[in-house]
Design a protein that fits this description.
This protein has 418 residues and is an alpha/beta fold. It folds into 3 domains: 64 residues, no CATH class; 161 residues, Rossmann fold (3-Layer(aba) Sandwich); 150 residues, P-loop containing nucleotide triphosphate hydrolases (Rossmann fold, 3-Layer(aba) Sandwich). It has 11 helices and 22 strands. The longest helix is centred in the last third of the chain and has 20 residues. The chain is globular and about 65 Å long. The relative contact order is 0.12. The model has no long low-confidence stretch (mean pLDDT 85). Bound molecules: zinc ion. The site of zinc ion has 8 residues, from loops.
């Protein structure tokens, strides 16, 4: 049986964790020992490599793998959630703990703005109090940093580990925030693993990360998967029972705004030809007149640059953000009126009074889950629970229609439950 541990490819962690308890080659018995992959590639005489791991680092049959066992510190944990939980949140939090106690995995399907993180905090707290090890996985570095701050406030007496990007703050902590891409460090380590944004890139449809999640759990370990959209590609374990919990109400109790479809033909061509359609311009002016911030989502970087240039020419204070922008936080601090963005900002950002437009909303990049997420950026604050979401497109795509139906259905379930 494997013992729990923290994995490294070299010995430089000796100082921090003492001697490794085990040292093996990274590829043994026909499997990659980091990720469990058995589809290996031959790269030399008697040498194989793991193609799954290779996206992040080079792992061959000559690579060493060291397993360290961390001594855990005992903190005197307390939980102070700044805003007390609403009735709906409280009910969801109790349900999660109930099913975890029954040794089941839990899927939390919560509408955007339901306060997912707060809902799962009582389960984290209960596990820490029982001296269990908890991991919280997120898909992006910026979100990891935000969450770490929120957890520091909510658990003021708990030392929290952090692995994201180039940062590794880890010694004896029992609660660790880790970015999905660095989960390969852990084997049989977590008794409770919270997988946030479990329907998002890069976890969505990716067997490599699904294997890492299962390998990072202890034998008694359980997962809570959280997302705002349909769990069409769930990552649950075939041998464990899974319960789905729906949280159809935003923490402030208001319904979700349903996007409206605005027909605009040849939008892509017109943006490239420096022609801002009247219907788009009126929407922008209407928003800015109220002094509200505006996000305009675009399907491609090319269309993003074109729209941003056009808006600047029209005199709007606009910035373009894509996955390659490494200065997002700086941009947000600038005076801006409009942010043009790819789907990179579909999650993890909250602005009061935000309105949202989706340009070329019938483009295949915008599947229904993505459109629901984008719509969920609006009305997240209790002081400003509503806003406007417009889908600008030549045709009403199936995904657009599904997204609008999905949001209407969620609102209906919410009002039926009242
Ligand atoms: Zn591998």
């Amino acid at each position: 049986m494997l013992t729990g541990g923290f994995l490294f490819q070299d010995t430089k962690e000796h100082k921090r964790f003492g001697k490794p308890v085990r040292q093996t080659f990274a590829i043994a018995d026909g499997h990659c020992q980091f990720c469990g992959n058995d589809c290996l590639r031959i790269v030399g005489e008697g040498i194989t490599m793991c193609p799954s791991c290779s996206k992040q680092r080079h792992v061959t049959s000559l690579t060493k793998r060291f397993v360290y066992v961390r001594k855990k510190r005992i903190d005197d944990h307390i939980l102070t959630i700044g805003v007390s939980l609403t009735h709906t949140q409280h009910h969801a939090a109790e349900s999660i703990m109930h099913y975890l106690a029954l040794k089941e995995d839990v899927i939390v399907r919560a509408v955007c703005g339901a306060g997912k993180t707060e809902i799962v905090m009582p389960a984290i707290f209960a596990s820490l109090k029982s001296n269990l090890t908890v991991g919280y996985i997120v898909p992006r570095i910026a979100i990891a940093k935000q969450l770490k701050k929120r957890f520091n406030d909510a658990f003021p007496q708990t030392s929290i580990g952090f692995l994201a990007g180039g940062e590794t703050h880890l010694d004896k902590q029992s609660f660790i925030v880790v970015i999905l891409q660095r989960l390969w460090h852990f084997t049989h380590e977590f008794d409770l693993l919270i997988v946030d944004e479990s329907d998002a890139f890069p976890l969505k449809g990716n067997p490599y990360y699904k294997r890492l999640i299962q390998r990072s759990l202890t034998d008694r370990g359980r997962c809570v998967f959280m997302s705002a959209t349909g769990q069409k590609e769930m990552v649950t374990h075939p041998k464990r029972n899974t319960t789905m919990i729906d949280v159809n109400r935003r923490y402030h109790g208001h319904a979700l705004d349903v996007p409206a479809y605005v027909r605009v033909g040849k939008l892509d061509k017109r943006l490239n030809g420096f022609d801002l359609p009247d219907r788009v311009r009126h929407f922008i002016d209407d928003c800015l007149m109220r002094n509200y911030p505006l996000f305009l989502f675009v399907p491609t970087k090319r269309s993003g640059w074109a729209l941003n240039r056009l808006l600047n020419d029209y005199g709007y204070a606009s910035w373009f953000i894509s996955a390659e922008s490494d200065d997002k936080e700086r941009v947000f601090k600038h005076g801006w009126e409009v942010i043009v963005t790819t789907t990179v900002l579909e999650r993890g950002v909250t602005f009061t009074d935000l309105w949202v437009g989706v340009m070329m909303a019938d483009h295949p990049v915008f599947d229904s889950d993505t459109l629901v997420q984008i719509a969920g950026r609006v009305g997240r604050k209790a002081t400003a629970p509503h806003g406007r979401i417009l889908f600008f497109a030549k045709t009403l795509s199936r995904a657009m229609d599904d997204a609008m139906t999905d949001i209407r259905q969620t609102n209906k379930e919410k009002s039926d439950a009242l």
